[in-house]
Amino acid sequence: MMKENNLSSETSLYLLQHAKNPVHWQPWSDHVFDFAKQSGKLVLVSIGYSACHWCHVMEHESFESDDVAQLMNQHFINVKVDREERPDVDKLYMSAIQLMGVQGGWPLNCILMPDGRPIYGGTYFTKEKWLEVLKALVLTYEEQPARVETFAKEIQENLEDKAYEHITASFSINKETLQDWMVKLKRTFDLDFGGYQYVPKFPLPNHLDFLLEYGFQEQDGMLSKHLRKTLTSMGNGGIYDHIGGGFSRYSTDAVWKVPHFEKMLYDNAQLLGLYSKAALFSDSKYDSEFYRSIVNETFIYLRRSLKTRSGSYLCAQDADSDGAEGLYYCWRKEELKIILGPDFNWFKDFYYIRNDESWEDGLFILQRKQELKQLAANNKWSINQAKENLNRVKRTLAFHREKREEPIIDPKSLTAWNALLINGLSQAYLAFNDESFIEEAVSIANWIINRQLQSKGALYRNYVNDISSINGFLDDYALTIEAFIKLYQIKGDLCYLEHAKKMGDYVLSEFYSEEQGLFFYTEKGSKLIARKIDIDDDVIPSSNSVMAHNLQLLGVYFRKEDWVEKSHQMLGKILAFINKYPSGYLNWMALYYRLFLGIKEIHVLTSAIPTKADLSALIRSNRVVSYHKEIPMSSAYKETEIYLCENKVCLPKIASIKTLLEELKN
Questions:
Q1: Rounded to an integer, what distance in angstroms lies between the CA atom of residue 417 and that of residue 312?
Q2: pTM for this structure?
């Protein structure tokens, strides 16, 4: 088996991209490690994903090279892993190389003992360095086995997440703690271009979502200004595709100009919701319209490029085409002159086409440097004329761009990322009252229910060519539960809440650690050398922080005080981490703030269903809305009644939705 490349029958695009390498790649499996133990060979695990630029570079330089392959095949069992399909493997060995003092990234290359314990790791290597590293490892493994075994044992012990059981979970809720976190966060803001001060810059939509919510509720002018700066800079920058819609994964510079051009579903799903909420909260008509244009264009991109016939959405689009990164998205000045004719004169100013702003090799990344009203004033147009002319030119450029080779799209759907899109589309519906958003959210939810949801509340993670083959991880459950709770609050369909409860029961049974007071990322049956606990809120919020929110809400809905208590205990275990490094835990902060505001229980048992406009004012993060007396939370109330309760105290019966919304303002 190990004497040939065995990736050709895999469903992962990333693995298939390596199926013709001379390296004898194997997919991740128990059999690999059985063979490694029998042969005594080291296991070389290389982890990446289809849209990863540097993964492609290392493949071309090293894994397509016969001399590199000869060395790898002779001395190692070589395993390729798609990090999007197997985030459990990725998280484990990413933690390992960080313990070794290496900064994480992809491709992630880790050398393991035959039983899976890591002894060396890194990210991208040049061919020369890769050969040097592999030869040194082979020599050390053969001549100093005791030293290698000692190191492997040490790393293994440090990979076990056992420290949380010693952390006290008790805490109190107070305004001073929130204010202290905000002071620390604000010191890290880039006040000139938005986001944080460090480079590269990632959008981090769940961070921005909490800051938006906090700034709106607390009327924090500095936060509101920073959010506007960030959202405007991202929407105007090169990280946004001005012709086709959608955001690239991150910017390589401080001004959001030069991205890594891959487009990920998880970014665009969350950013769609973020810009929608910003439009809902904004008191500027101009800003709201700008945010709405971003949402509409991103939604068009997602439906056009990533939607499948089954109703799910694909996970990513590559950065490269025609053998170069970003070539599909960039333009040459002379090319634009020919295509646009007389329109080029105003277009070049609006999108900053000037010689000193070219990216590389005479290519320009489109970035807006003017507001629409400035474009209108400069050309003596009305705002509507400016919009019409801009959209006309964008359609022209889109027509010409379609003639280029389009970057490859990864053909797999992931449950967790589709759940993020349900959330984003739900928020877009609340902001804009456009039925197409909620219809699409329901369509994706139906895909999860019909294709990904198993018996007893279990989920599959992946879906490729009508096949789901990998069991879900904690983020699949956490984000789906979150999305289904949101759908229940909007649609009032009890099945969503019932599915969320069933999945919650399953997660507590299969993922929860009583000793640690948190959830493992993998189920009980995981055969990895260590089960990891995910708490850091990165581009995607941590699966534990999302589950803490879910347990709080489901605990209220179903009157399960133990679930509410677990949620509070989870938050208590993370407070020390927030105090030390607040910018890594904003979704945990959002839970703390939800508790600070106080959970409001709203019983809308009347036949007068809230209108779309009512819903946008009704649904907030600290409100639990029930429409059914079948739910334990509302079982004591009569039908046709509306009640508002907080801290187990209820106001008198409320006559109408309008009166309810007035009470909520108080």
A1: 10
A2: 0.96
3-state secondary structure of 649: strand
Mapping DSSP to helix (H, G, I), strand (E, B) and coil, where does residue 325 land?
strand
CA distance linking residue 413 with residue 408, whole number of Å? 15
Residue 648 gets the label, from left (phi > 0), alpha (psi -120 to 50) or beta, of left
Residue 2 has pLDDT above 80, yes or no: no
Within a domain: residue 20? yes
- Residues 17 and 61 both lie in one domain: yes
Is the pLDDT confidence value at 666 over 90? no
**Is the confidence at residue 1, as pLDDT, over 60?**
no
Assess whether 386 and 288 both reside in one domain: no
The answer to whether residue 166 sits within a structural domain is no
State mean pLDDT over 293-315: 97
Q: Residues 374, 342: one domain? A: yes
Percent of the chain at pLDDT > 70 equals 100
What residues make up the domain containing 625? 601-665
d(CA 196, CA 389) in angstroms, rounded, equals: 35
Q: 3-state SS string over 154-203?
A: HHHHHHCCCHHHHCCCCCCCCHHHHHHHHHHHHHCECCCCCCECCCCECC
Do 463 and 577 lie in one domain? The reply is yes
Whether residue 361 is found in the same domain as residue 396:
yes
CA–CA gap between residue 118 and residue 91 (Å, rounded):
13
Per-residue pLDDT tens over the stretch 387-409: 999 999 999 999 999 999 999 99
Alpha carbon distance 361, 185 (integer Å): 38
CA atoms of 607 and 604, how far apart (whole Å): 9
Q: What pLDDT does 161 receive?
A: 82
